[in-house]
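Ticket #4471: structure export looks truncated?
Reporter: QA, pipeline team
Priority: medium

Steps to reproduce: submit the single chain below to the structure queue and open the exported record.
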Amino acid sequence: MKVYDVAIVGGGVVGCAIAWYLAHCSLDILLLEKREDVCCGVSKANTGILHSRSYWTPGTLKGEMHLRSLSWFERAFRELGLSPLRCGALTLAFSREEARYLEVSTKSEETSAEAAILSPKEVLAIEPRVNPEIYAGYFDPETMVVSPFALTIALAEGAALNGVEIHCGKEVIALESSGRFLRICCSDGTAYHARFLVNCAGASAVRLAQNLGDSLPSLSFFRGQYFVLDRECQGFVRCVLYPVPTEKSKGILVAPTPEGNLLLGPNFEPTQGEDTATTREGLLEVERGVQRLVPDVPLDRVITTFSGVRPALPERDFLIAFSPSLPCVLHLAGIESPGLTACFGIAEYVGELLARRGLPLRERNDFRFRVPSRAFRECSLEERERLIREDPDWGKIVCRCEEVTLAEVKRALRANPPARTLDGLKRRIRVFAGRCQGSFCGMHLPRILESEGGIPVHGLQKSGPGSFYVLRRDEVATYAEVR
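Actual output as written to the record:
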């Protein structure tokens, strides 16, 4: 019987960051994710902003984790092979009262050294398309943007490269303590054993804790809706553009992405559970909020919409605490914004807490850096020709919009962890992410996944249970009745 040193429940950005951080030490680590892939829950849908110190929340655990994380950025990106977009951010004030808020925010000891209050003329020199009715702006050059998919998957791959076992499709439903270790029971009947368990199951974290008899406060869920603009809009704005924030959220914003798209959103609305539908009302609210910042934003270049959900505790702070009933279980809950930014600081803090409970953290000397393969669309003509000579699959275009090749699809299917759905491929190599939203690649991918990934065409799912991409003729009526 194998007993892991640490089992991590939840394959979002925080769970994968903890796995990657602990993989620097000589430990046996297991990561369990209830969905079919990592990055399928809360982490999959957000703006991807890595907030600088200017946007931290003083007097909170989330603020402490945010500041801890900043010192990890350069090391982490080097070890993960990631290059975030270093774009900076402008917060725009439209009244004297809003400008006063900006003035107060610059007086914190933790404010970025190069941040500054700007006049309307200075703001427009940086971003000419900003609403000329602005009263003042706050420029912070240290803000960065990263793909939340790319970061989470890179953390998972970096952890797996260093021995972490990642098991997807494993929903933890119960824990049993034998005194020396935990027995972790999953809904499919499998069981694992570990000395420590870290519960960072995102939207399910409180429910799992309550199943163990721990009285964590219930989560509230807030939905944010987004527009995605075509990559031909790259350069329309260069910075992240914020309104002055409210007590609830940082507001509806405009953000460039590393891939060249523009993200518009999110709004902030209470919802029931993990409801990620988009609505006409919500998208109209986003449209109005964005046009306040940039009146001529090209909404005729929208290629898709989506929404994400943030699970929040009543006090709107992170909770990271050991279970009172099982002292070897550590709960994380309410990890909302800036959870993506804070993931490295959270991982370090979790390591410290586990060490105090007796987990030996002996740093290994054979830690391996992740070396990502370059995307075909980013290669020079000479590099493309060399790749095609070495493997003709590099010359077979599967996705026209994003220039994704058959070789890249095969690589994603054989990765660790592998893509097992169309959305899993999308998050790794950007099929379905371009202008046609899968009209071309969607014709070819089902057969490719069947032949190369062993996934039957009629069992292929877009995003998880029930999202079948291809139905037999006799299944259509039955499926409609179920829906």
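Status: closed, not a bug. The export was complete when the record was re-opened. Leaving a note from the reviewer for reference: The first helix runs from residue 13 to 22.
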